[in-house]
Amino acid sequence: MYGFVNTIITEINNTAIIEFYHPKSNSLPSSLLKKLETEILKAGDDESIKSILIRSNGDRAFCAGASFDELISISDEKDGEEFFNGFANLINAIRKVPKFVIGEVQGKAVGGGVGLACAFDYSFATENASVKLSELSIGIGPFVIAPAVERKIGISALSELSIDAKNWKSAQWAKEKGMFYNVSESKLEMQKLSSDLLNSLSEYNLGSILEMKKVLWKDCEDWDTLLSENAKISGKLVLSDFTKNKLKEFKK
Fold it and tell me: How do the domains of the chain map onto residue ranges?
């Protein structure tokens, strides 16, 4: 009922495969956010693991972002800040872990799901992986994930995606902007390409990977503070009557 996060270690290419699931379009309540963060950091500390692969269960939705049920239940700014810090901590875990984090985006991504896709060091997708940042349409904004999205696709594409909050952008659009590095016709084809890359990464030197990771995430050292401060903004806005009413409408 509440979803799960499972980790499998593959001996073929020394990869930690972290898979998450929630019955409501793979949305992410606090419990799953924390579990994902924990599993990523755990894999990062395991010297036998060369790479981390993150994917969601099912075919239709990669991640619907924040759990609407939990957003509706937020009653004060402290609870709101704590919830949005779950996304901040997840993104920072991906940033800090000394391994490449590869993502498989097999379906639609909304809000925090887009932030997750942008945080991956390398993202594969299928043609069904449309993306949307719907936050402004419900009275909040993509403040916590915005640095990760901007880092990956630039300020212009972030503006387009954020302001046009009610419309989907295609997987091809996301590829052209740099969010995805490959868009496959099917999930099977995507997984084949992902597996090929993971096999190659298993032959790389972990020391080199760590140093390259530092290069890729240069100038992001302040994100522990930045994303936490942005979580306060979202935590406050989610309490507005406008947002509460919009969330109830969406839930219906």
Answer: 4-201
In this predicted structure, the answer to whether residue 192 has a pLDDT above a threshold of 80 is: yes
Please write the tens of the pLDDT for every residue from 84-134: 999 999 999 999 999 999 999 999 999 999 999 999 999 999 999 999 999
How many angstroms separate the CA atoms of 210 and 79, rounded? 35
| Mean pLDDT on 225-244 | 95
Contact criterion met (CB below 8 Å) for 111 and 131: no
The CATH classification number of 4-201 equals 3.90.226.10
> Rounded to 5 degrees, what angle do the CA atoms 66, 34, 36 make?
90
Rounded to 5°, angle at Cα 46 from 213 and 54: 60
- Helix, strand, or coil here: 55? strand
Angle between helices 223-237 and 146-163 (to 10 degrees): 40
Strands (E), the chain: 4-10, 15-21, 51-56, 61-63, 100-105, 108-110, 122-126, 131-132, 182-184
- Amino acid at the residue 136: L
Contact in structure between 153 and 188 (CB atoms under 8 Å):
no
Please check the confidence at residue 179 and state whether its pLDDT lies above 80: yes
Structure tokens at 194: 């992902």
Closest to 149 measured CA to CA, from 190, 111, 198: 111
